[in-house]
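User: Design a sequence. Structure:
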């Protein structure tokens, strides 16, 4: 038990501090901002870092480079029922920058669901690129 506590204290004392800046998103999509920040926060913590904006912290810039939703299927009434979501993001830690991209389809079967299928597609997109973000932050 004592060895575990010593290991825990040492690992916390050597953790790197990361300061996440606001998401730069020219598309004004608040849910994408939320999902992007949440994925990066989770990756920082899982990589052994800490979220802190004190002096000496590594600055992390999050940017949505491109967001594109292309209609891919129509109903018999000529309404769009499915889209292809293409998302390009960049993550910059200090001077090193890495880009991430993902494309996936999602369906909007009825208007009664609101934007829930779209939010699910955004969550799925961040689930796909999460391991790449974790790998990028783990090398710091």
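Assistant: Done.
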């Amino acid at each position: 038990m004592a060895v575990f506590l010593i290991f825990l204290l040492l690992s916390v004392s050597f953790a790197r501090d990361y300061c996440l800046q606001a998401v730069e998103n020219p598309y004004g999509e608040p849910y994408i901002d939320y999902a992007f920040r949440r994925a990066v926060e989770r990756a920082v913590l899982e990589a052994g870092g800490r979220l802190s904006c004190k002096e000496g912290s590594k600055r992390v810039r999050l940017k949505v480079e491109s967001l594109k939703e292309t209609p891919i299927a129509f109903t018999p009434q000529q309404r769009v029922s499915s889209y292809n979501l293409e998302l390009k993001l960049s993550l910059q830690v200090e001077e090193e920058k890495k880009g991430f991209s993902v494309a996936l389809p999602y369906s909007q079967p009825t208007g009664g669901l609101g934007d829930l299928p779209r939010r699910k597609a955004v969550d799925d997109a961040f689930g796909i690129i999460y391991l790449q973000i974790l790998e990028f932050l783990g090398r710091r």
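The beta strands are 17-20, 50-51, 58-74, 80-93, 96-107. DSSP finds three helices and five strands in the chain.
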